[in-house]
Amino acid sequence: MEEEKILSDLAEIKDILKPIVISTGTKVIVPRKINDRFTDNGDGTISDNLHKIEWVKDPTQLGEVFCKKMTFEEAEKACKELSFINKTGWRMPTLQEEFSIRDYKRSNPAWDIDIFGGNFDDWYWTSETCAWNSGAAWCVSSLSGYVFNYGKVELYYVRPVRSSQ
Fold this sequence. Notes:
The chain has 165 residues and is of the alpha+beta class. A 5-stranded antiparallel beta sheet has the order 3-4-5-6-10, with no helix packed on it. The chain contains 4 helices and 10 strands, in the order αββββββαααββββ. It is 22% helix and 25% strand. The chain has a domain at 50-163: Mannose-Binding Protein A, Chain A (Roll). Strand 3 (32-33) and strand 4 form a beta hairpin.
């Protein structure tokens, strides 16, 4: 009787732990849980389980537009127009979202490169305008994780994000 209960419990646990497999027609994608917070979806995106958002894992894989630095307005437009892996609704991250991927045990780059790719030599835009200067927005350094506000005409990178479905 006890053995049956154990086998039943194991079967239930197996079902819970079974990875979600996504078929894209020609390719099977198996998401990989990195830690309690992040899941690599296997399709070029990272799910942020804390903030319930989805990040582009490496913006440089999105094409020429995201490989270069751009103004705040250009970054905002590029994110809004992005259609990646048949998903839309991409946007610039908030200051809280962008800052939250900072890994305090790292610098140069300040993000875990096993989770996030991209350019690591400058600042990344956030969607938030500086309260005392509407011509500036908050940015996060990919080198140090520092936060600073810069004029919206300056040229920096952007890492698109979208709400999880």
